[in-house]
Specification:
The structure is a homodimer. By secondary structure, chain A is mainly alpha-helical. Chain A has a two-stranded antiparallel sheet with strand order 1-2. In chain A, helix 1 crosses helix 3, helix 1 crosses helix 4 and helix 2 crosses helix 3. The longest helix of chain A has 19 residues. Chain A is elongated, with a radius of gyration of 18 Å. The first copy, chain A, binds a DNA duplex through helix 3.
DNA sequence: TTTAAACCGTACTGAAATTGTACGGTATTG
DNA sequence: CAATACCGTACAATTTCAGTACGGTTTAAA
């Protein structure tokens, strides 16, 4: 329940890596290697980020991706929205087209989920990428390949 | 993203119906008919509710289900927990058993999701079933079969 | 005592979403 | 001109979810 998709989790990690490079341009394969994730998957995530305006792509040689805004101006909500569209808790509001939920506008349940929705959105909006990328007292995950020994 | 499952949506509706019957015992097929949902699905939901201690089952003739607590003492969080287990946003905390997320305890992302998780839980906990079942100015959805004319 | 209503529990089937992969195309730099 | 790296779509596999079916047990009423 309420579990985020793996893509979303990956997306935040990738963006955090990019935030540590600031204005530097990083290639998709390089980010994939740094995070220990399959390269095509990372490429797909970055493409969606670019489409959402969170990162800027540079084609050609020495190309790659870079944040299009300072990390302090990018929230986790922005990342999720770029990956999976607007954050909605209920299928009621976007999926049911007039049939599944017949009580619709007078449905007391709807108000309930809306409240949850607002709380989630508010929390996601309040968390900036900078907070995640530069934690108060942690290492800044350099090029540490986590599964270097695991995948034998 | 963050979308609740249909089962959860159904569960809240069913529980709201039960709340309006208070101490009365209602059969699973009756609740299913009132909500316009398939009977086996409703039965499955009620079984889980009973297993979670939210409703009490009465077997035999004139049996059925009733709330085991006043509606004011049952939160939406309780319902979700009974249906789908503890409310966790990340797969990190429950799914990955030591391999998927290798940075684990020093992962700054983890703290991020934990914050979201707390916000969601707090909101869900603050909403009681009574609020949904007896809204301030709404009808109390009696035996109105919503799709009586639709399924021809 | 018998019968019927209603819950109990597991297993199975089908469908849907998600994840991961591949391929050919385009732009930029050296 | 050649190599690098993003671009976009399409496809296959896996997993999860919703829905269904069946046989069993309990209780109350006739």
């Amino acid at each position: 329940m309420f579990k985020i998709s793996r893509m979303t989790d990956y997306g935040v990690v990738i963006m955090a890596q990019l935030a540590q490079a600031s204005d530097a341009v990083v290639t998709a394969p390089d980010l994939a290697a740094g995070a220990g994730l399959p390269a095509p998957t990372v490429a797909k995530i970055l493409k969606r980020m670019a489409r959402g305006g969170l990162v800027t792509s540079h084609r050609g040689m020495n190309g790659g991706y870079a944040l299009s805004r300072p990390a302090t101006g990018i929230s986790v909500a922005d990342i999720i929205r770029a990956l999976e569209g607007p954050v909605e808790v209920t299928a009621c509001v976007d999926g049911a087209s007039g049939d599944a939920c017949s009580v619709e506008s007078l449905c007391p349940i709807r108000g309930c989920w809306d409240r949850v929705n607002s709380a989630v959105n508010r929390t996601l909006q309040s968390m900036s990428l900078a907070e995640i990328a530069h934690p108060p007292n942690f290492i800044d995950l350099p090029a540490t390949p986590k599964r270097a020994a695991a995948d034998s």
